[in-house]
Design goal:
CATH class of chain B: Mainly Alpha
Shape of chain A: rod-shaped
Number of domains of chain B: 1
Distance between the termini of chain B: 37 Å
Structural class of chain A: mainly alpha
CATH topology of chain B: Formate dehydrogenase/DMSO reductase fold
Number of helices of chain A: 1
Helix content of chain B: over 70%
Number of helices of chain B: 15
Shape of chain B: globular
Structural class of chain B: mainly alpha
Largest interface: A-B, 20 and 18 residues
Largest sheet of chain B: none
Order of helices and strands of chain B: HHHHHHHHHHHHHHH
Strand content of chain B: under 5%
Number of strands of chain A: 0
CATH superfamily of chain B: Formate dehydrogenase/DMSO reductase domain
Radius of gyration of chain B: 22 Å
Strand content of chain A: under 5%
Largest sheet of chain A: none
Oligomer: heterodimer
């Protein structure tokens, strides 16, 4: 990816961060479900 | 006391632990004399390029992070109301108190002139310096920890009235402790934001204060499990029923918390990487080492914790705790030494001398010996019979 000005740079990096944030939100929910699953005896 | 008992006591002095600890302490004392008579140059490999070595990278950075068990456990018990973790509060507070006390002790080796330690706070304040903030917070938090732990000492000494007054301050001290820890844990990370050209871009981030604070929570939770596991066998005779009954629940609860906090830490590190667009560094040698740190010492323990909690497998959780503790040490080493001054020629890079390693071992051994001395005498792993159920 080539950047010609700061606007380009921030559009790219912020875009990636927003995509990651979306992925992390979904990932954290799934991970939480995974963590709380399994053998629940006396929790 | 019979002659047999006296003989057994004399014999018990020469245990493998005592012999190894004794050798390290004697070696440490010799290097201490060399350091304070011959200066830094006599025992360290520090120079103008590398003014901070393992006395800062290990004794201070790792010491403060690994002492975070005090504020995480007391916050869980007294602020979040998880009273089932009450039995773990005193061991965690004691570990934190000794950890911080030894941080200050080790700092005296690095800065020298220990009698001038109060100067930056009381004589000539550098209020614009992050180190001033760290110094102030560590001094205040060490005082808070001393007061938080004092009920155990006061119960041991039989000073009921003072003990009852101090116990009433518990909630206020816990809140104070959490605030101070948040401030200085993050400030230690902020210290490195003033050297953006010296720290490798994979480790440098404007979010370093956040990374340091969040990783300290992982360190604190893991250290409580790790230290509890190490203490379990040698200190078993000092643990009461409440401690032993709640031990497995504590490991499961802290393991669950550590798993999700490590997941969060991994996520924010990923965001830091994306925000600075540092992806291309991942294919370099430093990138490989960064991936070892992130995948081997953050993602893997998080997953191991999750597996351990799901299967209620305490052994896996204990291994995950050990891996996390090691991971925090690797992270602090990377930031303060491995990735610091990365642009210098290998001949100018820092590697600790035997004198520095001896002092670091001396400080850790001193901590273990004092911890053992206190826990075999004061009500730390058990409740004093006169104050049972007072929480």
């Amino acid at each position: 990816m080539e950047f010609f000005n700061l606007q380009d740079y921030y559009t790219f990096t912020k875009g990636v961060v927003y995509l990651l944030m979306g992925g992390i939100l979904v990932g954290a929910t799934l991970y939480w479900q995974f963590l709380l699953g399994g053998n629940k005896k006396d929790d | 006391m019979s002659v047999d008992t006296t003989a057994a006591e004399q014999k018990s002095l020469f245990t493998p632990f005592n012999i190894i600890a004794g050798i390290i302490l004697v070696a440490g004392l010799i290097v201490t004399v060399m350091r304070f008579t011959g200066g830094l140059g006599a025992v360290t490999n520090l120079d103008q390029n590398n003014p901070w070595g393992i006395w800062i990278g290990f004794d201070l950075m790792c010491g403060v992070a690994l002492a975070a068990g005090g504020y995480t456990t007391s916050a869980a018990c007294y602020i979040f109301g998880l009273k089932k973790f009450h039995a773990a509060v005193r061991p965690a507070i004691l570990t934190a108190f000794l950890g911080y006390a030894l941080v200050v002790f080790a700092l005296a080796y690095d800065v020298g002139r220990p009698w001038r330690l109060p100067y930056p706070l009381f004589v000539q304040q550098g209020t614009t310096s992050l180190l001033f903030e760290v110094g102030l917070c560590v001094m205040l938090y060490l005082t808070v920890l001393a007061i938080e732990f004092s009920p155990a000492a006061l119960e041991w000494l039989g000073l009921k009235k003072i003990r009852n007054v101090v116990v009433k301050l518990t909630l206020a001290l816990t809140i104070f402790g959490v605030v101070l820890s948040t401030l200085h844990q993050s400030s230690l990370g902020a210290l490195f934001t003033i050297a953006p050209s010296k720290l490798h871009p994979l480790w440098y981030s404007q979010y370093l204060p956040v990374f340091f604070f969040v990783s300290s929570i992982c360190a604190g939770l893991s250290m409580v499990i790790f230290e509890g596991t190490l203490s379990h066998k040698p200190m078993h005779h000092m643990m009461d029923k409440e401690y032993l009954d709640n031990h497995d629940g504590l490991i499961l609860g802290f393991g669950k918390a550590a798993s999700i906090v490590l997941f969060g830490y991994f996520s924010i590190k990923l965001i830091g990487l994306a925000y600075d667009n540092n992806w291309h560094y991942l294919t370099t040698g430093y990138g490989a080492w960064y991936l070892v740190e992130m995948l081997g010492f953050v993602a893997m323990p998080s997953f191991l914790y999750a597996i351990g909690v799901r299967d209620r497998n305490l052994t896996v959780i204990k291994w995950a705790a050990g891996l996390t503790v090691l991971g925090i040490i690797v992270n602090r080493f990377n930031i303060s030494m491995v990735a610091f001054n990365y642009h210098l020629d290998s001949a100018d890079r820092y590697f600790p001398s035997w004198g520095e390693i001896t002092i670091s071992l001396f400080v850790v051994t001193l901590g273990v010996v004092i911890f053992r001395f206190i826990t075999t005498r004061m009500p730390v792993f058990f409740e004093h019979p006169d104050y049972k159920g007072e929480h």
